[in-house]
């Protein structure tokens, strides 16, 4: 399968499994799961040819591990990044490393300096253990700025952290006092 087909399908899955399942008449349960058969059928009605084999390739080759199949292989979901209010992942609280990173673009720094990191339309702020991963994420939006997040101080003040299946760290917000530009 071509890289373009895999990338296009990944973007389509991100759109429908994270944000707008109703755009193709798809339903997600409260944990974000959709029936693989229903997804293939709904995509077909919209003129998009998706096969089980293509879905398996996207799930298993996506570098960011954005999607997963249920244990029985009958359902698929995005593992984080949802903006759909009907999806409320039941994530287990976890102890994060002492420091996490967030990559962003310089054009967002003024807002971040006022509000801290907020989830925007998503359910959580996304953080990384790896500086390099944060840099790659930030580069998608322009000239990159990496912010160091002091998680130990946040924990001391009662903030909670979760980790998605793909290793992305999640929290509801990061106030400015816990951020340090690198």
UniProtKB/TrEMBL annotation:
| Protein name per Swiss-Prot or TrEMBL | Probable RNA 2'-phosphotransferase
Q: Does the keyword NAD belong to this entry?
A: yes
**Entry keyword NAD:** yes
Q: What class of enzyme is it?
A: transferase
Described by its record, this protein's role is as follows:
Removes the 2'-phosphate from RNA via an intermediate in which the phosphate is ADP-ribosylated by NAD followed by a presumed transesterification to release the RNA and generate ADP-ribose 1''-2''-cyclic phosphate (APPR>P). May function as an ADP-ribosylase.
Protein family (similarity comment): Belongs to the KptA/TPT1 family.
Report keywords, A-Z: NAD, Transferase
Matching entries from InterPro entries are given as: Ptrans_KptA/Tpt1, RNA_2'-PTrans_C, RNA_2'-PTrans_KptA, RNA_2'-PTrans_N
* PANTHER family, per the entry: PUTATIVE PHOSPHOTRANSFERASE, TRNA 2'-PHOSPHOTRANSFERASE 1
Any one GO MF term held by the record is:
NAD+ poly-ADP-ribosyltransferase activity
In Pfam terms, one family for this protein is: PTS_2-RNA
- GO biological process assignments: tRNA splicing, via endonucleolytic cleavage and ligation
What EC number is given for this enzyme? 2.7.1.-
- What's the source species for this entry? Pseudomonas synxantha
């Amino acid at each position: 399968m071509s890289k373009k087909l895999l990338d296009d399908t990944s973007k389509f899955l991100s759109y429908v499994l994270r944000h707008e399942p109703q755009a193709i008449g798809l339903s997600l349960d409260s944990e974000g799961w959709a029936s693989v058969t229903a997804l293939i059928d709904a995509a077909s009605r919209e003129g998009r040819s998706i096969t089980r084999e293509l879905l398996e390739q996207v799930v298993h080759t996506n570098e960011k591990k954005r999607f997963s199949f249920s244990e029985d292989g009958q359902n698929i979901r995005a593992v984080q990044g949802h903006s759909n209010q009907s999806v409320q992942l039941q994530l287990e609280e976890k102890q994060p490393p002492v420091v996490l990173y967030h990559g962003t673009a310089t054009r967002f720094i003024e807002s971040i300096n006022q509000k801290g990191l907020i989830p925007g339309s998503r359910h959580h702020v996304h953080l990384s253990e790896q500086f390099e991963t944060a840099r790659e994420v930030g580069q998608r939006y322009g000239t990159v700025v990496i912010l160091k997040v002091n998680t130990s101080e946040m924990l001391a003040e009662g903030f909670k952290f979760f980790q998605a299946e793909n290793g992305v760290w999640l929290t509801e917000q990061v106030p400015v006092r816990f951020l340090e530009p690198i």
